[in-house]
From TrEMBL:
Family in the record: Belongs to the CorA metal ion transporter (MIT) (TC 1.A.35) family.
UniProt xrefs under PANTHER family: CORA FAMILY METAL ION TRANSPORTER (EUROFUNG)
Native source organism of the sequence: Nocardia mangyaensis
Places the protein is found: Cell membrane
Taxon lineage: Bacteria, Bacillati, Actinomycetota, Actinomycetes, Mycobacteriales
GO cellular component, one term: plasma membrane
Protein name per its UniProtKB record: Magnesium transporter
A Pfam family recorded for this sequence: CorA
GO molecular function: cobalt ion binding; cobalt ion transmembrane transporter activity; magnesium ion binding; magnesium ion transmembrane transporter activity
Region (Disordered): 1-24
Amino-acid biosynthesis in keyword set: no
Membrane topology, record value: Multi-pass membrane protein
Reaction(s) catalysed by this chain's protein: Mg(2+)(in) = Mg(2+)(out)
Length: 362
């Protein structure tokens, strides 16, 4: 029977396996919502981003709000082309927006603002040394004269509720795309507050466990919680400078009324940052307390070991003396000699045990 021709193998041959062609995903798959707002009210109907941008241009006060979730590079380039984002914004920020995990920042490209916010979410967990406590993501907001584009990475801190709340307050949406910028920033900072409150409860439980004598809490759990607090601080603290710039008059295209709202957001952010600093200090104190507790426990264990070693040394010493095989020991030839030595060993060990118990070594 003729053998079948062997298939080419790429494993271990040094040649990369042929890559599969990427199937382009329509931009609409990444769009969560797209709407046109005129005088603070949403226009009826469904629009593509291009149709919405064209429709907003037919009015004096209209703007578009496009919400995206985890878009790929092609989808982001399509949005950038529709809304005419600055080439530097496309090169320096859009690609980074696709990669995600950016540091919070605020940049201006001509009349377009680009704000990056890190999002955090509290994860329910058991107190151990491997549990994840804080999950992070990011939200990026582009605002121009007639558009607001929000890009969200991660499965938490959704913006559907933010849009619904804003649509119930047309007096806020009248301020245009910057109203969206404020609403998103306020929503993210509020989520910081919620996560901080949950972590504060974790720290309180950890403190109770550390200072409970019978507790077996491990120091690894404290280090894990401290690491998560450090990650939270890295996500929250850098946002202070962008919020301060938006709250102050630094020539940015932000209405005065929105600046007043941004000052309130900045105040909340400052409060959260102070709480996170307090968490870090509290956990450092817990680490020291846990180390001291471990040291005390080790000292207690060493005292017990030393006490038992002392009690074992007495019969060992007596047995060693009788093991030298001298015949001049007069009690060796007495019938009561062996029981008497055993009794002596027991009495001496009992006296040592009583002394150690009285001194609380055992």
């Amino acid at each position: 029977m003729p053998s079948l021709p062997s298939m080419p193998s790429f494993r271990g041959s040094g040649r990369p396996a042929p890559s599969r062609p990427r199937i382009p995903v329509p931009t609409a798959r990444a769009i969560v919502d797209c709407a046109v707002y005129v005088d603070g009210k949403r226009l009826a109907g469904h629009f593509t981003p291009r149709e919405a941008f064209t429709r907003s241009g037919e009015t004096d006060s209209g703007f578009v709000w496009v919400g995206l979730h985890d878009p790929d590079e092609t989808q982001m380039n399509d949005i950038a082309e529709i809304f005419g984002l600055h080439p530097l914004a496309v090169e320096d920020t859009v690609v980074d927006a696709v990669q995600g995990r950016q540091r919070p920042k605020l940049e201006r490209y001509d009349d377009t603002l680009f704000l990056v916010l890190r999002t955090v979410s509290y994860v329910d967990h058991e107190i151990d040394s491997t549990s994840e406590i804080v999950e992070t993501g990011d939200i990026m907001v582009f605002t121009g004269p007639r558009f607001a584009i929000t890009v969200r990475h991660g499965e938490h801190t959704g913006l559907a509720g933010v849009r619904q709340d804003l649509e119930k307050r047309p007096e806020q949406l009248v301020f245009g795309p910057c109203a969206v910028l404020h609403a998103v920033a306020d929503h993210v900072v509020d989520s910081y507050v919620e996560v901080a409150e949950s972590i504060e409860q974790d720290i309180a439980e950890m403190e109770e466990a550390v200072f409970t004598p019978s507790s077996k809490i491990g120091i690894g759990s404290i280090y894990q919680l401290k690491r998560e607090v450090v990650e939270l601080r890295r996500a929250v603290s850098p946002l202070a400078i962008p919020l301060e710039r938006l709250a102050q008059d630094q020539g940015l295209p932000v209405p005065t009324e929105i600046r007043r709202y941004m000052r309130d957001v900045a105040d909340h952010h400052t409060s959260v940052s102070e709480h996170i600093t307090y968490f870090d200090e509290s956990l450092s104190g817990l680490v020291n307390a846990a180390l001291a507790k471990i040291s005390v426990q080790q000292n207690t264990d060493m005292r017990k070991i030393s006490a038992y070693a002392a009690m074992a040394a007495v019969p060992t010493l007596i047995a060693g003396v009788y093991g030298m095989n001298f015949d001049v020991m007069w009690e060796l030839h007495q019938p009561w000699g062996y029981p008497a030595v055993l009794a002596l060993m027991a009495v001496l060990c009992g006296l040592l045990f009583r002394s150690f118990r009285r001194n609380k070594w055992l």
